[in-house]
Amino acid sequence: MAVERQQPRIRASAFERLEGVNCVIITESVEAATGFETVCKYSVMDAKGESLFTASEATNCCLRQICGAERPFGMSFTNEEETEVMYIERPYRGCCFTCGFQQLDVESPPGTSLGHVTQDFTLIRSCFTVADSTKQPVLSIRGPFLNCRCCDINFEIFDLQDEEIGWIKKDYSNSANESAENVTAKFPMDLDVQKKALIISACFLVGAMFFGR
Q1: CA dist 66 → 32, 58, 208 (Å)
Q2: Average pLDDT over the chain, rounded to whole?
Q3: pLDDT (tens digit, 9 = 90+) per residue, 41-88?
Q4: Each residue's pLDDT tens digit, 112-159
Q5: Which contiguous run of DSSP H or E holds residue 62?
Q6: Given phi > 0 = left and psi -120 to 50 = alpha, else beta, which region is 63?
Q7: CA-CA distance, 182 to 164, in Å (whole number)?
Q8: What percent of the chain is modeled with pLDDT above 70?
Q9: Is residue 181 a contact partner of residue 212, using CB atoms and an 8 Å limit?
Q10: Is 184 helix (H, G, I), strand (E, B) or coil?
């Protein structure tokens, strides 16, 4: 019982820097090959460019080449003190129509479920449900009706009252390198920090599937 009472304080401490944030920018900072693995590191920053987290993904080179956008991955998030505060995992779900609906599992602290991001069954647009640790929906994410890589792709974020509260999009304007594909997410300043963390996690699933990350 004592462990359960302490859990919310651990999570709050992990995400306390998100309390005054209403925008995050995710950019790939390092990609290095070590043996058969490619280690990709991403910087998660606020709108001022101040670091919030560093995300590290170690992916087998073969999986990255063969599976492409459908590749499974695990990713660790650390803060400035290099403490792991969150871990996300995307299991391999295949690429066929009936079995390929994607899912992302989010843990914080690592080993304890924070929530899930699950691709919905839709015919005309890409949609995702963001759920808490009990798999109860807390947000939804809806993509465009036409996924075209020749123009910006915006994914809108909605609350349970079906009000649009933010978005996720690919953005070139926040990088000195115009070819860099940053992913930017916008959400309310007063949104619960755990929901903000789930939105940040969703950026990596959406980015892998649609932005070629």
Answers
A1: 18, 16, 14
A2: 81
A3: 999 999 999 999 999 986 665 555 555 556 678 999 999 999 999 999
A4: 999 999 999 887 888 999 999 999 999 999 998 766 555 567 899 999
A5: helix 61-67
A6: alpha
A7: 22
A8: 69
A9: yes
A10: strand
State whether residue 74 is helix, strand or coil: strand
Element (H, E) at 67: helix 61-67
Euclidean distance between CA atoms 114 and 124, whole angstroms? 30
Closest of 55, 53, 62 to residue 33, by C-alpha? 62
Sign of CA dihedral 20, 128, 89, 65: negative
| pTM exceeds 0.85 for this model | no
Q: What pLDDT score was predicted for residue 68?
A: 54
pLDDT tens-digit profile of 150-207? 556 789 999 999 999 999 998 755 444 444 568 999 999 999 999 999 999 999 999 8
Tokens of 134: 């009990």
Strands 164-171 and 84-90 turn out to be: unpaired
* Cα three-residue angle 205-35-109, rounded to 5 degrees: 40
Q: What is the dihedral of CA 95, 135, 184, 212, to 10 degrees?
A: -10
Q: On the CB side of 97, how many CA atoms lie within 13 Å of its CA?
A: 2
Rounded CA-CA distance 93/96 in Å is 9
